[in-house]
Amino acid sequence: MDERQDTLSELLRPRARVSAAELAAMPPSLTPAEAWPWTRQSRSSFYKCLARGEIFHCRLGSAIRIPTRRFLFQLGVLDEL
Structural domain tally of the chain? Predict the structure, then answer.
């Protein structure tokens, strides 16, 4: 794994708060696999929330993308949208 991937993995690690600098370094959207650990629920529960529309997401063909800023705000780890 290269250094950039190590840094991104560390940035996407769930924690209590996300600073503005950390948010700026994160990708604009997350895959479900990247977003799921933040919710601290089972994988199947996470996908059920996606299907019910409880987690805002966009579909690009068959790919699901979750806007990072909105997702973190919804979880309460980001102070402002």
Answer: 1
